[in-house]
Amino acid sequence: LVKGIPQEFIDRLIAVGGCTGHAEMSVGNCYDAVSTVVDTELYKVIAFEMLAEAGVEVLVNTFLAGAIVDNGKIQGVIAESRSGREAIMAKSFVDSTGYGDLAAHAGADYVELNDHPVANSIGVGGLDIDTYHNYISGLDIVSQRAEGIRSGVDGKIVRVDAQWQKMLPEEFLEQANEIGMSFVSTAVHDDGLMFIKLNYKMETSPTDRDAVAQAEYELRQRQHKAIQLIRKYIPGAEKAYINRTSPSLCIRRGRTITCDYDITIEDVVEGRHFDDDILAYGFHDCAPRIQVKNGGSYGIPYRALLPKGIDNLLCAGMMITSDWEAHMSTRNTVSCMGQGQAAGTAAALCALKNCTTRQLPYPELRAALEKDDVVFVD
Q: Which residue in 81, 205, 323, 341 has its CB near the most CB atoms, within 10 A?
């Protein structure tokens, strides 16, 4: 359902060997309809290429330090870098920080629910996914499997998971649980696994600087323990090693910004669409317990991206939707990418028309999104 710029991104990744494509699940009937795995390093290359081609002025290594606001309208953002402090003035703004930093600096209402763990996944070298799959298949504990493009060849295993509680010693299960280890394994290349997750539930919100510093240390410790467990208990993984981590911990939710509309779980499971949809979406991270009715889709309304009290700001990504169960759909990567295209398009139109986000005629936004291959379900 989510095409447009997100699908262009995937197509370009496939072309350089950095994506499995939309790999159909052949085992595991409810969690994911497809498994789209990406090489995170090639993802970064493609992201920069697309920004450069679009003429975007890219200011990496620059941090948001504040906002200049006048009568409910943002005039500019205060940025800090090694070049010093500066004000960047504009007509329209999008907050896609994940943490809701710009919205908070601009005075938007928000809550910090702290209802998700943070994580830092690892990539693992020295463990071949086929060898791993053959081992768990021999034990008859495969719970998930998907086939797609791996090392440029289609039809190869790119995702596996196992019902380890049936076979592995209690010692392994206890230690894996202690470090929040999820062993759903994915692969884009033949010589390593892309994604083994380590979760950590913080006592305070991940906007707390000092608490995050402690969480960073804890997650690095957990990564090391995870590799030791893999080496000890998984046949053929005796020389496994970490070949990828994120530079910092990743969040599922920071601040939740109060917007004109708050998507509910009823909207999701009933498959509701709105008269100001910006995309159609159909995935939920808690399937099979929670699913969209009749295998259908629901819509994300434009007004769900508009922070109350601010006239020229849009929020996109995991900072919308206060309902935890609804958020377990809207926070996911593909949804965030779709929201990003809609928010960026709306901000550009508002700047061109010199209007506020609430003055923008929805038919004009809809037409621009459809022109750029966004799929709608009426």
A: 341
pTM of the model: 0.95
Strands 93-95 and 313-315: parallel
pLDDT exceeds 60 at position 31: no
Q: Residue 119 and residue 180: Cα distance in Å, rounded?
A: 9
Q: In this structure, how many other beta carbons lie within 10 angstroms of the beta carbon of residue 275? A: 11
59/85 Cα distance (integer angstroms): 13
What is the average pLDDT across 324-335?
A: 97
Neighbours of 340 (CB within 10 A): 18
Helices (H), 18-139: 40-53, 101-105, 129-138
Distance CA 275, CA 376 (A): 11
Cβ contact 238:124 at 8 Å: no
| Tokens read off for 239 | 């020389």
Distance CA 249, CA 264 (A): 28
Helix boundaries (H) for the chain: 4-15, 40-53, 101-105, 129-138, 170-178, 209-233, 265-269, 324-330, 333-353, 362-371
Contacting residues for 140 by C-beta, under 8 A, at least 6 apart: none
Give the pLDDT confidence score for residue 30 in this predicted structure.
Answer: 58
Looking only at the bridges linking them, the beta strands covering 110-111 and 185-186 are unpaired
Of 218, 242, 216, which is closest to residue 229 (Cα–Cα)? Answer: 242
Reading the block at residue 78, the tokens are: 């205060």
Q: Which residue has the tokens 């998971």?
A: 161
Rg (CA), the chain: 22
> What is the pLDDT confidence band of residue 166, given thresholds at 50, 70 and 90?
confident
Burial-class residue 160 by CB neighbours within 10 Å (0-12, 13-18, 19+).
Answer: buried
Q: How many Å apart are CA 172 and CA 158, to the nearest integer? A: 24
Alpha-carbon span 343 to 74, nearest angstrom: 16
Distance from C-alpha of 285 to C-alpha of 328, rounded to nearest angstrom: 6
Amino acid identity for residue 90 in this structure: A
